[in-house]
Amino acid sequence: MKMKQIFMILGCAVVLLVLNSCTVKTSDKDARKTLAVLCIGDSLTSGYKLVSPGKQSYPSQLGKISQHSLTVTNLGVPGATILKKGDIPYWLSEELDTALSSHPDVIVLLLGTNDTKDCNWQYREQFTEDYIEMVRILQQLPSGPQIFLCSIPPVHNATPSGISNERVAQLTEEVREVARVTGTQFIDVTTSFENMPKLFIDGLHPTASGAGRIAEIVMKAVVKS
């Protein structure tokens, strides 16, 4: 075989290797699926009192600011509690059934506000135990989701039901401990809302801007993980 032919064959081989390398990289990039995110929570998650929850709730805004890198499902249940003995336990919701039959990449929990009601506070000693159990169950999903636990936003107006900032602060520390015990990530959404009553409609439920701020905080945590 002549040297010229040998060089031509080697040249073609190099070109094929380069093309194949490019194809693999492109395929890898295309194969990066959009992350499926489940937002588990109560009325602060569902978007209660917002004009358009489907657009203004924090899960909806999270999906928007992610620029399609996240597919977000809102599984908020107004009034829901982590406590199994609570007046509206998340444990009995259809939304939890939906979560357990899903294949999420990420799960964000923002619960605890309603656990501070007078009717639920009597069971507060079980809060940490019930929260840990909830997380453990979600960790066992086949998709092996990454789980984030949010602190409970501050309450700017005490309610007749007994919800107060003092109680919320106590449970937030327990949420932090649950994250440590379960090896999940803790997201501080409290600091950004201290002394910011204007970001709440009634001192309890976030405005569209407040929900947007929660979305931004959650987005940063997910991106950093």
How would you characterize this protein structure?
It is a single chain. With 225 residues, this protein is an alpha/beta fold. It has 2 domains: 1-32; 33-224, SGNH hydrolase (Rossmann fold, 3-Layer(aba) Sandwich), CATH 3.40.50. The protein has 9 helices and 5 strands, in the order H-E-H-H-H-E-H-E-H-H-E-H-E-H. The chain has helices spanning 3-31, 43-46, 53-56, 58-65, 94-100, 118-121, 127-139, 165-182, 208-224; strands spanning 35-41, 70-76, 106-110, 146-150, 185-187. It has a 5-stranded parallel beta sheet with strand order 2-1-3-4-5, sandwiched between helices. Helix 4 packs across helix 9 and helix 7 packs across helix 8 (165-182). It is globular. Mean pLDDT is 89; it is low at 6-31.
Poorly predicted residue ranges: 6-31
Q: What's the Cα radius of gyration?
A: 23 Å
CATH fourth-tier homologous superfamily of the largest domain: SGNH hydrolase
Do you know the CATH topology of the largest domain?
Rossmann fold
- Please describe the biggest sheet, giving its number of strands, its sense, and whether it closes into a barrel: 5 strands, parallel
Report strand order across the widest sheet. 2-1-3-4-5
- What structural class should be given to the helix and strand makeup? alpha/beta
> How much beta, percentage-wise?
5-15%
The coarse silhouette is globular
Helix content: 40-55%
How are helices and strands ordered from N to C? HEHHHEHEHHEHEH
Overall pLDDT, averaged? 89
Which architecture of the largest domain does the CATH hierarchy give at level 2? 3-Layer(aba) Sandwich
Q: How many domain regions?
A: 2
Task: Count the beta strands.
Answer: 5
- CATH class call of the largest domain: Alpha Beta
Q: Termini distance?
A: 56 Å
Discrete helix count: 9
Protein name: Lysophospholipase L1
Domain SGNH hydrolase-type esterase: 39-211
Signal peptide: 1-26
Pfam families: Lipase_GDSL_2
